Amino acid sequence: MLAYAVRRLAYGFLVVLGVLGLLFALFFVYADPHDMARRAVGEKASPGVLDDWIKQHGYDRPKLEQLRDHYWKMLTFDFGRSDLDDVPIARRLREGAGPSLVFTVPAFAIGLLLAIQLSLFVAYFRDSYIDRTILLIAVLEMSVSILLYIIGGQFLIGKILNWFPISGFDPDPALIPRFIAMPVLIYSLAGVGGDVRFYRTVFIEEMNRDYVRTARAKGAGDGRVMLRHVLRNSMIPILTNVVTAIPFLFMGSLLIESFFGIPGLGAVTVDAVQANDFSTLRVVVYIDALLFIVFQIVTDFTYTLADPRVRFE
Amino acid sequence: MRRGRWLPAMSAALAIAACSNSPYPSSDDGIKVRYIPLGEAPKTLDPAVSYSALDHAIIANVYDTLLEYHYLERPYTLIPGLAEAVPEAQRRADGRVAYHFRVRPGMRFERDPCFAPDAPEPTDREIVASDFAFALMRIADPTVISPVVATFSKVVGFEEFAKRLVARRDADPNFAAQHIDRQYAAAGGIDGLIVHGRYELEVVLREPYPQLLYWFAMPFTAPVPWEAIAYYDGDGGRPFFKEHPVASGPFRLARYEKHSRIVLERNPNWYGALHPEWRAPGAIYPSDGEPGDAEKGLLQPEYVGRPLPFLDRIEFRLDKEDIASFNKFLQGYYDASGIIQESFDRAVQNGGLSPAMAARGMSLAKSVEPAIFYIGFNMKDPVVGASGGDRARKLRQAMSLAVDAVEFKRIFNNGRDVPAMSPIPPGIFGYDESYTNPYRKLDPDRARALLAEAGYPGGIDPKTRRPLHLTFDAGSPDTRSRLRYEFFIDEWRGIGIDVELAAQNYNAFQEKVRRGAYQIYMWGWIADYPDPENFLFLLWGPNANAVNPGAPNTSNFADPRFDALFLAMKNMPNGPERMQIIAEMRAILERERPWIELLHSESYALYHGWLHNVKPAGLSLPTGKYGDVDPELRRERREQWNRPIVWPAWALVAAFALVVTPGIVTFFRERQ
Amino acid sequence: MEGYVVSNAVVGALVAGAAYTVRAVRRSRQWSQAFRELGRRRPIALCAIAFYVALGLADSVAWIDASATGIAAYEPSSLVDRLFPAEFQERSYSAPFAFEEFYGGAGLRHPGQHWLGTDIRGRDVLHMALKGARVALLLGGLTSLIVIPLALFFGMSAGYFGGRIDEAVFFAISLLSSIPTLLLLIALIVALGRGPVQVCFAMGVTSWVGFSRVIRGETLKLRELDYVAAARALGASDARILLRHILPNVMHLVVITFVLLFSGMVLTEAVLAFLGIGLDGSWGQMIDQARDELARDPIVYWNILAAFAALFFLILSVNRVGDAIRDILDPRTVRENV
Do residues C178 and C294 share a domain? Predict the structure, then answer.
């Protein structure tokens, strides 16, 4: 077990190194330091000033030295300052994490609960007209672009029905519910279709197992069977799904934060992309990849713990 | 299953409890606060660097300057702000010109920890003349990267100071570790900025430049305490100076979250608050203005002569989507707004406010901005530029005749804006209402004739035997801009020319400009100050980008006669002689067509009934201190306009139950 | 060579390829049975897809109209373009079937003939919606052309040869799947440029990973089968075994995945269009242009409705067909139904 753990961690570390290398290739091989300087400093600056900026940010050094620096900085979490406005990137990340989590966590929780309930419901009534109708609705729902959910939702709920502010955010706890209500609603509902289909398959597979038939034959009530046995034993794939989704909770949703004016990590990413702020962009992507790898490892471990029969090469 | 149903019900209840579309806490309802939307995060609040209208909207309220513009009078006139009077130019024997400013004694900077970092409470200090000199020395300092170095280079000794400063820093690494004011002092200061005593500042220019006084109404020349520069260096958890102003204006920065909101509050240390007995022109509401101001409600007796400011707080909220912010305006959550293209017909009908908007108590203010939008040709390009000679000139004239600015503004700007005939907009001396540019009206037949004369019959390039191929370089790739570029491309297609759009972002575009790799582009310019020199200099030869990288003459237009006339008129006082020279310059532009002048933008602003004393201004004016709100009226109207419509929620729940119940019932029945 | 000539040639090649595939399917009992079953289960969705494909092909066949005037005399027009009259563009907005402009009430050049109205520049919305089909199919087709061979190559190599190659491929898969897809897409497109080929390449690079993993798993299983071992013992070369024995047996996965990936990619392109880096003329771009129009008063709805409807029905049909194909071809589901 320990050997496996060490190997898995080492492998994960190798992947992190690979990701960093890829990031460097993407951002620094193609980026032009003069471009970046001009973006940060402004148009009217003289060439001498631009050169100063480039020197200050270290973009004039040989590529190999920059690569080494890149690795060292990222691995020691020394994120430096934004190319655009010199604000420490770590501070920006800290400020952005809060607003992102404040809406992704409820959205994810609600979406998950809704999907599981609906899937249990649908799995229970499998092959009936309810099942077929809900599946059809799910496919219809999946086929609509998320853009339309956002645009339509904002238009309908914010403008016509006056339920919640059209966009914006305020960290004041009294005001948070009304700002996140619409993003949470749209974020959780937009993914329900696909989730229902997935969980339905999982539950149906579980329901076909022998022990379920036995329990039913023994006279256990349907509801009890569904909840007690089917749901519990389906926890592994559900858990895998949940753990894999955690990194995305941190990173927020680029689209939703953009449309709803939530100053979270998604907004940080969009700003960095639009401004070609590579120093921030590489940190954001790195953190996201790191979280993903870490939680993958966690998933693998929980798998091993939950089901002792499962072992990986 | 029962457990499962409880959760959605609770969530729905919670959601409805949170139901309110107001972005502000109810505790703000009675406060005199004005809410203003910001389209993007401010880049910097450093007055030496900030040059965008957005940044100025914030800092103009925080940084006061020696001179100001009179709030209501048009044409714009200067009044004293922090200075006691508007100085006259004093010509000297050696050709230099001097201005004497006398700073009012007894004014103080806002309270801030930077003045005494170890003190338990933030302290302040008096504003003295050397603080203004310090601000100007910062502009000269290359590490500050100020965009207006070229303007202030007219001050004697400006560039020399910069050179000495750099030399000292390069020679001795410890030099840069000293406090900034010591560095400047050690480098000898600027020769043309002389401080006499505590309150007198003399500014000496190398040559006459009457427009200099306008720069003293802009934040670039606001006083800056050296302690703030030394203290707010970003180290030790302290913010940068560009995020933490220490100033002396009617408001002070209370909260700076640049990605969501910026809050300004009344500054108790403002000279208007400390010394109301001075009745300083910049601290009381004006008693006269333009004809028509009284009718618009800008000279109400309860405000005239009263001390400023009236507001307690100004809140800027970041709202990137302009449709969302306009809708919030309609809901009463912003006090004033421009009118977005999409909602124009709802707000404006027959040139005036629509009945729906009037019923809500709003008012409409139109003003032509001192701005010009144009399509420019790169005169250094072999095909469309000066080296193409007569042929290229006719091509430019033909292309100018094919562009219909009236149609453009009808489709894209709801018919707003004034079609431009020359670079100078209405409201600036040199604008002639009766002048029509013969090349700025739609005449496709004449255009085709000129094309043929130019050697491109039917638009065909004889060398390739295909339609003449030109490139239109866009400065922004977003969809909205593309649609506008494509409009012009369609017009040129109509006369047979194949213009290709190269869509890229602003930086890539600037790169192309630098390399001279562009033919046609579209750009705009809004006045820094109300003088024709600020527009005509965009076409002055020595300002050509190709000659002087970063200079504003992106067309690289260089006509010797035009350049000579420019030098003659730039320092002239306004009068018939100046007008004549400008007319001749205009005639040259008419013939040569380095630009296709499109529009002078017209801003339509909507104000809610509870907002008072707001007059649109094209230049950056500190308008915050003149405005006022009626919070009770606002609260009332907001409630009235924003009642949530709850019935759809219940309808949805009912519908769901209706759909699902028969299915469940049937299923159970079947199992029996 | 002119662009449209190449495009016509590609269409010809596609049609030829399709004919060949049809012949191959008819010869194989397994495939023709599967196809018939599909036709039985999802007739409407198949017809819809066929319609879109026909549209896409029609828009790809273009040549220069000899009778055109002005610049149009030098530009090729496709079969879809020829469905509409020449000089069809109005000056600005008009409602579906309208006789006058939407704002201002001025007359139209072709009153009553714009079935879905016109956009802000006066272009016919139906025309643009129809042309969008080609862009969507190009996106799906071109990207799959990149994804499928890549995934097959890496997946089969990893599963068949095992050892170092497997480790290397698995490492690459882990690497690419760790970086969030949208960010990787954006980064690639920003680095490579915004042309259609670059966008398709970027989408291909980000999509091959999941599929490759599936192929790898399947190849691992197939490798252990008796007849494969027998073939090895008889001295058949690896390439022959891969091509003859393994590849045909993973084809069903290819078909399933292709269909499922397709809808995902078209939807992702819509998001990219919103960020400004999509393909020209796509429905995503139409949606992006039109999203502000919902705020207009009176409301302009035909633009976004047309784009949305076109996008929705294609994705829905593809999803429905994809589900059905998976049910038919996936041995697991087959087992279940038994």
Answer: yes
A147 touches chain B (CB under 8 A): no
Which SS3 state, helix, strand or coil, does residue B98 take? strand
Could you give the C-alpha distances from A259 to A169, B22, B43, B325, B628, in angstroms and in order? 12, 17, 21, 12, 31
Same domain, C195 and C108: no
Boundaries of domain holding C202: 3-84+124-337
The 10 Å Cβ neighbour count of residue B589 is 21
Give the torsion through C-alpha atoms of B59, B64, B66, B72, to 10 deg: 80
What is the pLDDT at residue B394?
95
Report ipTM for this prediction: 0.83
- Out of A18, A30, A247, the one facing C175 most closely (by C-beta) is A18
3-state SS of C1-19 is CCHHHHHHHHHHHHHHHHH
Q: Which residues pair with B313 in a beta bridge?
A: B33, B265
Written as one letter, the residue type at A240 is T
In chain A, residues with a C-beta closer than 8 Å to the C-beta of B143 are 52
Q: Are residues C153 and C132 in the same domain?
A: yes
For residue C300, give how far its alpha carbon lies from the nearest alpha carbon of chain A (Å): 13
Q: Which of C333, C317, C286 is CA-nearest to residue C118?
A: C286
Place of tokens 């989704």: A245
**Apex A170 CA angle, A167 and A173, nearest 5:** 125
Q: Residue B474 in contact with residue B462, Cβ under 8 Å?
A: no
How many CB atoms are located within 10 Å of the residue B573 CB? Answer: 8
* Two tokens, residue B305: 């002569």
A296: which chain C residues are within 8 Å (Cβ-Cβ)? 178
3-class secondary structure, B469: strand
Helical ranges in chain C per DSSP H: 3-27, 29-41, 43-60, 79-82, 125-161, 163-178, 181-192, 196-223, 226-233, 238-241, 247-274, 283-290, 302-329, 331-337
Confidence band for B408, pLDDT divided at 50, 70 and 90: very high
User: Under DSSP, is residue B216 helix (H, G, I), strand (E, B) or coil?
Assistant: coil
Core vs surface per residue B513-528: b (16+ CB within 10 A) or e: bbeeebbbbbbebbbb
> Token pair of B368, please?
């032509």
CATH of the domain at C30: 1.10.3720.10
Instruction: Quickly state the pLDDT bin for C145 (edges 50, 70, 90).
Output: confident
SS3 at position B291: coil
The helix or strand, by DSSP H or E, that contains position B472, with its residue range, turns out to be strand B469-473
Identify which of C171, C183, C320 has the shortest CB distance to residue A285.
C183
Give yes or no: residues C65 and C89 share one domain: no
Q: What is the pLDDT of residue B4?
A: 47
Q: What is the pLDDT of residues A116-166, one digit of tens each?
A: 888 888 887 777 888 888 888 888 888 888 888 888 887 777 667 777 777
> Do C77 and C209 share a domain, yes or no?
yes
Q: Does C199 lie in the same domain as C181?
A: yes
- Subunits with 3+ Cβ pairs within 8 Å of C are A, B
SS3 B201: strand
Q: Predicted confidence band at B669 (pLDDT cuts at 50, 70, 90)? A: low
CA distance B654 to B557: 71
The stretch B425-448 carries a mean pLDDT of 93
Q: Nearest-CA residue of chain C relative to A271?
A: C275
| C37/C152 same-domain check | yes
Nearest 5°: phi and psi at A240? -55, -45
Domain C-terminal end among C123, C145, C178: C123
Query: Within its chain, how far is the Cα of B111 from the centroid?
Result: 29
Do C56 and C204 fall within a single domain?
yes
Show which of C94, C123, C152 is a domain's final residue: C123
Tell me if the bond preceding C149 is cis, omega within 30° of 0: no
Total domains, chain C: 2
